[in-house]
Amino acid sequence: MAKHDVRFKVEVVRQYLSGGSGYQEVATTYEVECSQLRRWVASYRLHGVAGLEKKYSAYSAEFKLEVLQRIEREGLSDRQALALYDIRNSGDIGKWRRQYDGGGLGALGPRRKGRSPMAPKPPAKASPPNEPRTQKELQEELAYLRAENAYLKKLKALSDAERISAGEKAQVIQGLRPAYPLNLLLRVAGLSRSTFYYHVKALSAPDKYAGIISKIRALHDHHKGRYGYRRITAALRQAGELINHKAVQRLMRKLGLQSVVRPKRYRSYRGAVGRIAPDLLQRQFQAQRPNQKWVTDVTEFRVNGQKLYLSPVMDLYNGEIVAWQTERRPVLRLVTAMLQTALSRLKPSEKPLLHSDQGWQYQQGSYRKLLQDRAIMQSMSRKGNCLDNAAMESFFGTLKSEFFYLNRFDSIEQLQAGIRQYIHYYNHERIKLKLKGLSPVQFRTQALSP
Question: Rounded to 5 degrees, what are φ and ψ at 321?
């Protein structure tokens, strides 16, 4: 990782805080990691310039426990805790958590520095002190050192020889057998004869997945990457191959194959999970009249390393997108501006139920006050359950499958214009079978006409 001085960090942070650019744009301009920039900004806001200076600290077990307990008690993220306690190494908290889970408070204490002691080599039969060694002993020692040197050369590409598996050791020994005696190589590697022969037999066994791998690759190429491991598994089973989906997932990961249709989407921080509003919708996605039940969520798009976030609100009566807002960052304005536009369309007597997930935006006081001022009931999905907001998730899937994935965009502005056109098409032209072959606007207009 590149080293940066304090002046450089301050310049980058102040460039972001000026408000002219987002995290990704500033990080790209200054050639730093976006996550690193976020940590710098958080530390600067809490500790000023001192939060960006070099810091070398040895933390006590009590301090580590205090950090972990506060994260658990207040629902903080690791990034927030790093900034609050001015901890510079981003991986420290995760390491402390693993240590505490494995060994309690004692595992958080300081450990002895230096490398772990290596296992002693089997001592060669040495001559008594002060007596010259025989020619046979010298030859045996020379043969051992030559075998050891050849063995270590084979492991040169590996960073830590202590972590080499027995199978890898057996593979190295098998390659050196023509040049050195087997018992000498086993002694150098610290491997038993039975273990060596077991792994040699395993290495020579044919790959039972060889035929499956070719079929997986053929299916992936035929469907142009649209199939993930679940659909690949289903296609293999239809062809008569009995294989578990976990094996297919492991093989696809080994081959570097993955679905390109549904990449990882934006997931907001949950905040105070389950403490704001109950699930009043209860997956009842049908409404008897317009503006009776609304659903909303946030989704993410990526174009040329930049991001765009979309926040729509849908009327469950006819699936119409009542209002929507886009921003380059998932800020609070993304949902409040959308909500204000949607509320402006309501009559004074209309008070719809508004359902969302437990994203942090929907837990903010300003957002909730907008709902309370109009006497609108707020509903939230259960923790980590996207099915509770399936209607909104279905719209996002349709939007991306029918519009985003089928087109190429050169800029965020081009994507924004395309989203505007598609939502208009979705509301006014795209028919739905469950709406009797009408578009959402046509269905609403027909239902309200005398």
Answer: -80, 105
DSSP-based three-state secondary structure for 323: strand
**3-class state of residue 275 by DSSP:** coil
Are 312 and 423 part of one and the same domain? yes
Distance, in Å, from the CA atom of 262 to the CA atom of 228, rounded to the nearest integer, reads 9
**What is the total count of domains within the chain?**
4
pLDDT given for residue 265 in this prediction: 53
Cα–Cα dist 353/376, whole Å? 6
Statement to judge: residues 308 and 439 lie in one domain: yes
Residue 125 corresponds to which amino acid? K
CA distance 335 to 325: 7
Is 115 contained in some domain? no
Task: Find residue 29's DSSP bridge partners.
Answer: none
Q: How far apart are CA 231 and CA 220, in angstroms?
A: 10
Which residues 6+ apart lie within 8 Å of 385 measured at CB? Answer: none
SS3 content of the chain, % helix, strand, coil (to 5): 50, 10, 40
Would the pLDDT of 204 be above 80?
Answer: no
Domain that holds residue 148: 136-204
β-strand partners of 47: none
pLDDT higher for 168 or 336? 336
The pairing of beta strand 293-296 with beta strand 306-315? antiparallel
Provide mean pLDDT across the span 289-314: 94
Final residue in a domain of this structure, among 179, 204, 229: 204
Distances (CA, A) of 132 to 137, 142, 143, 145: 10, 16, 19, 19
Claim: this prediction has a pTM higher than 0.85: no
pLDDT of residue 334: 94
Which of 87-96, 136-145, 151-160, 213-222 has the highest average model confidence (pLDDT)? 213-222
